[in-house]
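Final report, Chapter 2: Outcomes

The project's central promise was a pipeline that accepts a single protein chain and returns its three-dimensional structure in a standardized token representation, suitable for archiving and comparison. That pipeline is now operational. To close this chapter, we reproduce one record exactly as it appears in the project archive, with the input sequence first and the structure output second.
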Amino acid sequence: MEFVAIKRDRVLAWLADNVPAPRIKHILGVEQMAASLALHYHLDVEKAATSGLMHDLAKYFKPSVLLQMAQEEGLDIDPVDEENPHLLHADVSAIVARDKFGIFDEEILQAIQDHTLGRPGMSNLSCIVFLADSLEPGRGDTRELEALRQAAWENLYKAVWLVCDYSLKYLLDTRCLIHPRTIRTRNWALQMASKKQQSAEEMMKSKKVGS
């Protein structure tokens, strides 16, 4: 635990030098919500907190730096990424977590990578960091956000799908480019939520028949 505390202090010190104070407040909110969701869903709380704390390491890197680091890493770069390199900050944050802070746990690195656009087939850890990034308390307290937060505690796949819909609506309203991975994530989460619902209904039917 002492090692974890020391590493967290190092990350916080680095963030203080590289990220504005309001963004650090958001990062801490994501760290806390990810840890709480992990506890709720019986996942590794330390991994969730670490992923949340490091998810925005590259948030304020220059677009040219984001593109260069992504290219050097050999990442797939979509035309939407080229138009808006900021979308690469999640992938580059994972690179910084690995190279600067010695994070080699693939599940943590993947959760950091997935926190903005999601990814079809992503792990439950990735799901909760994705949700925490959009829903931590600092994001606001509108009725819609509160409903999404409630969904996050009830069904991870449904919450991911609904958060994707929430993001897509904003992107459509503001006439922004939409990354294809967001759409693929939304469709995957909707399918998974539907399968889970169908499985639950079938289980209920079988219980009724057996009673």
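Archive annotation: The radius of gyration is 18 Å.
This record, like all others produced under the grant, will remain available to the consortium after the project formally closes.
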